[in-house]
Specification:
The protein is an alpha+beta fold and 136 residues long. The protein contains two helices and five strands, in the order βαβββαβ. Strands 2-3-4-1-5 form a five-stranded antiparallel beta sheet. The longest helix has 23 residues. The N and C termini lie far apart (64 Å).
Length: 136
C-alpha cells in the first residue's frame, strides 16, 4: 500500500481572518448574514425586502398582488398584508416557527419573482439581498 505525503500547511492559511469570505454583491450588504433572532410561535413579524434597481415598479405591483393571492396562506404561515413602497416590498406575516417563516418566504419570493418576470418580460433575480425581519 502506497503512502502519500501530505503537504505541510502554512501557519497563516485557513481560519478566520479580516477580509476573508464571500464579498457582497452590491456596494454594501443590505442585511447582515448573521443568524436571525428566533421568532415567537404564531407571532407577527415585519419583513422588508429590497427589489433589484432594474425592476420596473409598475409591473411589480400587479405581480405582488397575484403572488399574495396565490399563496398568502400555507400550513403554519400566513401573510396578513403586503405592500410595495418604491423598491421595497413590505410584508406582515405570522409563522408557527422559524422554519415555517423561511419556507413561506421562499415560496412567496418564488411566486413573486416568476409573476414579475412574466409580466415584465425579463429574466433574472428580483431581490438584491436577503429579507430583513423585525418582530412586532
Amino acid at each position: 500500500m502506497a503512502t502519500t505525503k501530505r503537504a505541510k500547511k502554512h501557519p497563516n492559511w485557513g481560519g478566520r481572518r479580516p477580509g476573508a469570505g464571500r464579498k457582497p454583491k452590491g456596494d454594501k450588504p443590505m442585511v447582515s448574514h448573521a443568524r436571525r433572532a428566533k421568532i415567537r410561535a404564531g407571532g407577527r413579524v415585519s419583513i422588508r425586502w429590497q427589489l433589484d434597481p432594474e425592476i420596473e415598479v409598475k409591473g411589480a405591483r400587479a405581480a405582488l398582488a397575484s403572488a399574495l393571492k396565490a399563496g398568502s396562506e400555507a400550513t403554519g404561515f400566513h401573510v396578513a398584508k403586503g405592500a410595495l413602497r418604491g423598491r421595497v416590498a413590505e410584508f406582515t406575516v405570522s409563522a408557527r416557527d422559524a422554519e415555517r417563516l423561511a419556507r413561506g418566504m421562499q415560496g412567496l419570493a418564488i411566486r413573486f419573482a416568476r409573476a414579475l418576470n412574466r409580466t415584465t418580460g425579463r429574466k433574472g433575480r428580483v431581490f438584491t439581498d436577503r429579507y430583513e425581519v423585525k418582530e412586532e
